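User: I'll paste a sequence; please echo it back and then give the predicted structure.

Assistant: Echoing your sequence first, then the prediction.
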Amino acid sequence: MNFVKRAGMSLGARKSKTAALLAIFVVLCALLLGGFLLQAAAARQEAGAQRTIGVDVTVRKKGLTPPLADRLGAFDLVNRYNAELPVRARARGFAPLTSDAPKPGGTGTGAKERRAEQDPLAVNGVRDSGMLLPFSYGSAKITAGRGIASEDAGHGVAVIEQRLAEENSLEVGDTVRVRSPDGERTAVLKVVGVFQDPTRDPPGWTPPHELPGNALYVPVGTAQELATGTATVSEAVYRIGSPDQAEQLHAEAERLLGEGSFTFRVNDKAYRNQVRPIQQVGTFAGLVVWVIASAGALILGLIVTLQMRERRAELGVLLAMGEKKWKLIGQHTVEVAAVLLPAVALATLAGSLAGQPVGDVLLGRQDDKPAPEARAPEAEIDPPTVRVEPATIGNVTGIGLGISLVSTVIPGIGILRLHPRSILDETQ
């Protein structure tokens, strides 16, 4: 009789033990599937977190120009970057804010003081206002419209402070005119956003350009047009995926900017706080998979060994009838593997129903947690996405088949040493 057919008859004749073996396999496959699903969900969430949070690297260099900052920003590892170019400017057609406190006597006659009053606006040329510390850490907030984005390059747009907007009855969509300090160039800017700076006005007299309400954010190109002389970037911030990539970015910065001619500061606090726990969950899930696979092979091996002891008479009869020993081992392997397939199906169904809730508990829905001090509120990590994919089912099935093979072949080595007469003598 074909040993595969004999395996099917054996499973049908031993229904209770087949059901017990099925239950063990369902638990084993469910745990394996859970480990793989959690590992895959952690990997997806980690990739999203690296793009969203990442690691910020601040580069400062005397004479750093916008083109140089852009060239470094074009490096493959950079996901997002911002260059900040501060200039002073004059207002045309609207009134800048002034300090309510009286000016101290004798301080209003110097050239520096006169220039401070003539150029009252602090214009900050930026590429991506969302990467500025006041916005990324949540102290400054956009109350209307939007911030400056990389797509605004070459366009005359501005984001103004709420106090300046209220003083001049300005809203999103209005137009303001800003002049260069020498009065030779005028930029016409459309207000695309209004932000609120929580910094209070100083109690004493303060030059207008130092008042928080007189700050404007514009694209870098607009700031360059308003600058007198050569405008340079005060600092550039580059966001990369992980701290491990900082060394490569530093090497690229040395190539572009010159070795030792710049400062390079890595801020990975947000990454450590948010991404490292996800990595730990993924590592734990991978460890669980191998522990379960090893434990499953051991448990099933013991079960098969006990079954072989119980079925020594059957084995002896088959050997006496001329059945080959490798077919006896093959029969046991087929019996165990046949139970695996429905177990995988049941485990897949359980994973589809319970995978997402379990992933939410272990990985945590980040939007339900208060934003830590080191994380930008707009850069929240996406919630874990747990989904059963064909590749995952294939991995579980493959490991299950491997466990079936190991748990039957190793105990089955004893069959190779059996002799029909000795077995039959034992059973009489």
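The two ends are 25 Å apart (CA to CA). The chain has 13 helices and ten strands.
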